[in-house]
From TrEMBL:
Residues 30-49 bind DNA. It holds the Pfam family TetR_C_24. Keywords: DNA-binding. It comes from Rhodopila globiformis. Signal peptide: none annotated. It comes from the Bacteria. This is HTH tetR-type domain-containing protein.
Length: 202
C-alpha cells in the first residue's frame, strides 16, 4: 500500500509538472509553482525528485520508452511485416496522442536535460530507429515493401507520427482511433506495401 501511495504522489507531481512546463515553459516554472498547484510545499516534491531537471527528465523519458515498446512489441508479434508495421504505427501513434503534453515538453525543453538524461533518451531513440529499420528491412527482404533507403524511411515514419502532437485536437474532426489508423495506412503507402499485404482499415 505504501508503494502505491508513493507512486500516486509521484504521478500527481508529474501531471502538474507537464501542465506547467507546457503552459509556461521549463524556465518559467518553479518547483514552488508546481507545489502550489498540488497544495503542498516544495520539500514534498524533493522527496520524489532531486531537482527540477530530474523532474523534466521524468516527464520526457517515459514517452520515448513507451514509443519504443509499441514498435518492439509489434515487431515481435506474429504476422506479415505489413501487419506488424501497421500495428506498431497504430500503437506508436496512440502513445503520441495520449501523451501530447509530454512530447511537446520534450521537443521544446530538450536543451534543459542533463547530459546523462539526454544521452539516455537519445539511446532509446536510436533503439527505436533500429527496431523500426529492422522491421522495414524484413519487409523489403520478403518482397512486401519497396524502400530505397531504410534509414531515411525509419526516420520519416518516426518524425511523421511524432509530429502529430502539434496538430492533434481531442475534439477535432477525426477520432483518436481514426487518426491512428490513417497514419498507419499512410505509412504502408510510404513503404509501397503490396496490396495483398495491406491490412484492411476498420
Amino acid at each position: 500500500m505504501r508503494d502505491e501511495i508513493s507512486a500516486y504522489k509521484r504521478e500527481r507531481i508529474l501531471e502538474e509538472a507537464v501542465k506547467l512546463f507546457y503552459e509556461r515553459g521549463f524556465s518559467g516554472t518553479t518547483l514552488d509553482d508546481i507545489a502550489g498547484k498540488l497544495g503542498v510545499t516544495k520539500p514534498f516534491i524533493y522527496t520524489h525528485f532531486r531537482s527540477k531537471v530530474e523532474l523534466l527528465e521524468a516527464v520526457c523519458r517515459p514517452t520515448i520508452e513507451m514509443s519504443l515498446n509499441a514498435i518492439a512489441q509489434a515487431a515481435q508479434h506474429e504476422g506479415t511485416a505489413a501487419d506488424r508495421l501497421h500495428r506498431g504505427v497504430v500503437d506508436f501513434t496512440k502513445v503520441v496522442l495520449q501523451r501530447q503534453g509530454n512530447i511537446a515538453v520534450y521537443f521544446r525543453e530538450e536543451k534543459h536535460l542533463s547530459e546523462a538524461g539526454l544521452a539516455e533518451i537519445n539511446a532509446l531513440r536510436k533503439r527505436f530507429d533500429r527496431v523500426l529499420s529492422d522491421l522495414l528491412q524484413e519487409g523489403v527482404n520478403n518482397g512486401e515493401f519497396q524502400i530505397e533507403d531504410i534509414r531515411v524511411a525509419a526516420l520519416a515514419i518516426g518524425g511523421m507520427v511524432s509530429w502529430a502532437y502539434t496538430w492533434y485536437q481531442p475534439e477535432g474532426r477525426l477520432s483518436f482511433d481514426d487518426i491512428s489508423a490513417r497514419l498507419a495506412h499512410f505509412v504502408l503507402q510510404m513503404v509501397a506495401a503490396q496490396p495483398a499485404a495491406v491490412p484492411a482499415e476498420t
